[in-house]
Amino acid sequence: MTDMKTKVGTDPVPASVSQKTRSGRRLAPVLIVVAGAILILILSYTLPPFRNYQLATVGAYLCVTAGLTVLTGLNGQLSLGHGALMATGAYAFTLAQNKWLSMPVSFVTAIVVTTLAGAVIGLAAARLRGPYLAGLTLAVAIVVPSVTSTFDGTFNSDQGLSVMLDPPPGTIPMERWQVWVCWAGALLTVLTLALLVRGRFGRQLRAVRDDETAAKLAGINIARTQVLAFVVSAVGAGLSGALFAVLAQSVSPGAFPLTLSLFLVMAIVIGGLGSLFGALWGAVLLVALPTFAQSIAEQTGSHRLEGNLALVVFGVVLIVVMLAAPGGIASTGNTLIRRFRRTR
Amino acid sequence: MSQFIYLTFDGLSRGAVYAAFALSLVLIWRAARIVNFAQGAMAVAAVYAAYSITSATGSYWLGFGVALLAGLVLGVTVERVVMRFVDHSSPLNGVVVALGLVLVIQGVLGIIYGNEFRPVETPFSRDAFEVGGVAMLSRYDLFVFAAVGAVVLVLTLLFTRTAIGLRMRAAAFAPDVSRLLGVSVGGMLTLGWALAAAVGSLAGMLVVPTELGLHPTAMDVVFVSAFTAAVVGGLDSPIGAVTGGLVVGLLLSYVSGYVEPTVAPMAVLLLLVVVLLGKPGGLFSSSRARVA
Fold first, then answer.
1. What would the pLDDT profile of A205-225 be if each residue is shown by its tens digit?
2. Is the per-residue pLDDT at A11 higher than 60?
3. Do B110 and A311 touch (CB under 8 A)?
């Protein structure tokens, strides 16, 4: 760690921690991501196609939950507009893909466009706090169908667009290929974020969240930190949206409703704000809970339960977690680890 | 010109509803420093209750009364069961819990009533009167003005002329001192939520028939418009909420009429951004912000 001089008060690492463990903090995410990649590769060969599709969906969700948990958990900015940013990424990807038929180019386009969108929203967001920011981003989430209907020449209104994808290379089944694409994106996002938040940027994020005045006195540019945090999380959302376009092979405003944005908030809160493992938990829940609710709905044979039961379960879990354990799933793990370390 | 007159009246009528809804947000904000993001879903729940009663009995007014009652009950329930236990150390917590409520309410409504749009009757005709060949107001618009006017009047009298209103203001402004003076601060908070939810239900009853119909998510867009109205006027100011509501209503009406209806949500977003960046305290904010 080179920036010992500028250490900010909120640094969670005590000063007594040796240089060796500090470099370990950089190495750990790389190892975890490599292990994750191997695990995913094995899973993609052993799981049946439908499970592979679900696994790919978890990866796509992980991109956005990881970014959002950094924004909300570490920087204290609540965004209800990440569903809209996902839509931005998905539409940018689709338009680029249908024009140039090159997936790398399309992904880059999606990322560039959402970076710009994230910067614009982030510039406004950096001046807002609490409920004002939530209200503004809510308005952004609501405006998606309006935009696609107004410029229906480009976005084709409510019907949306279909994505022209080349078939996967060789004899690889579609689902396995989707797992690889989605998890490549997810693991890259997580690795980038993990390295970012472990360094100076992460300390600045936390410092701004905890006490803006103190952070300012420590020489941190508050607005720049907040805009950067928003842009970083927007890129995650854009990549996630592009991956969803790959998964569904179509985009429409109906795929990015307000409930999606609320689900994302739910996922990171339940997973544990500010923890990338929490983001993984949240992404898993986003896929697992609706499947679970769906199977209950099918057993009872009531078509009204479909979709709606998932809403109720999500909502109840969200409220209970907020009231009982604001740290979320990841924090219970952390508490155990801390207890373990203390007894050692 | 005739279109301008028609759009103006239409905008004022819409605006009156947004004003009522914004008032309900302001009421809770003043009482508890929470923007109730679940207000829209709560209002829809009340409208569904009214819908059930009206379909069962055939009486609009019985349903209307039930909606207001359902609003009161929902407000009390939400405050007593959920919001009271939220940790207010971070302003995010209240927002997140309210979002959880949105999911629960919309899910439960979907399970009970299904997710199709249901047409809702209006008690009065929505055909506009014509004065000299110019379409102006409908009977329903007049009903909306009367209802919202009555709410504003009752709330003003309640807060400025009655002892209970004074207690509510005191409990919100200086909870500790009020408690020492014998005011039931918790009770006033519950009352504030109940009142706000009832006003929100009234707004829901007025706005749902003019939109696509009854649906668990019917108030999402209305909520954003009302939030914008409340922010335009300043979250702390009831007069501001009413003015903001009328401004947003007129804006929506002109944009829908002269440009295209699909552009309207974007216009609201633009107004929200401009106000938040230009005068975040709202047009009616006092020079010194209240800290408590």
1. 999 988 889 999 999 999 999
2. no
3. yes
Residue count of chain B, please give it: 292
In Å, how far from its chain's centre is CA A80? 12
DSSP string over B140-177 = HHHHHHHHHHHHHHHHHHHHHHSHHHHHHHHHHH-HHH
* pLDDT value of position A274: 81
Q: Contact, A294 vs A306, CB < 8 A? A: yes
CB nearest B276 (choices: A124, A258, A314)? A124
Q: Are B139 and B156 in contact (CB under 8 A)?
A: no
Global confidence as pTM: 0.87
Does B6 or B248 have the greater pLDDT score? B248
Q: Does B107 contact chain A (CB < 8 Å)?
A: yes
Q: Do B103 and A318 touch (CB under 8 A)?
A: yes
List the alpha helices (DSSP H) in chain B. Answer: 2-32, 39-57, 60-77, 91-113, 139-161, 163-173, 175-180, 185-207, 220-233, 238-254, 264-278
Query: Could you tell me the two tokens for A137?
Result: 């981003």
β-strands B134-138, A250-251 pairing:
unpaired
3-state secondary structure string across A80-142: CCHHHHHHHHHHHHHHHHHHHCCHHHHHHHHHHHHHHHHHHHHHHHCCCCHHHHHHHHHHHHH
Residues of B in contact with A312 (CB under 8 A): 103-104, 107-108, 111
Across the interface, do B103 and A262 touch by the CB < 8 Å criterion? yes
Q: Residue A170 — left, alpha, or beta (φ > 0 → left; ψ -120 to 50 → alpha)?
A: left
Cβ contact B269–A143 (<8 Å): yes
ipTM of the complex: 0.88
CB neighbour class for A156 (10 Å; exposed up to 12, middle 13-18, buried from 19): middle
Contact B106 A311 (CB under 8 A): yes
What does the alpha-carbon distance between residue A288 and residue B68 come to, in Å, rounded to a whole number? 38
- Cβ atoms B229, B245 nearer than 8 A: yes
Q: What is the pLDDT of residues A71-80, one digit of tens each?
A: 998 988 889 9
User: In chain A, which residues have their Cβ closer than 8 Å to the Cβ of B100?
Assistant: 266, 314-316, 318-319, 322
- All domains of chain B in start order, with CATH: 2-278 (1.10.3470)
Task: Give the C-alpha separation, B257 to B14, whole Å.
Answer: 13
Q: What is the dihedral of CA A226, A96, A169, A43, to 10 degrees?
A: 30
Contacts of B34 in chain A (CB under 8 A): 131
DSSP labels, A142-156: HTHHHHHHHTHHHH-
Put simply, the chain A residues between 302 and 341 with a CB less than 8 A from any chain B CB are 302, 304-305, 307-316, 318-319, 322-323, 326
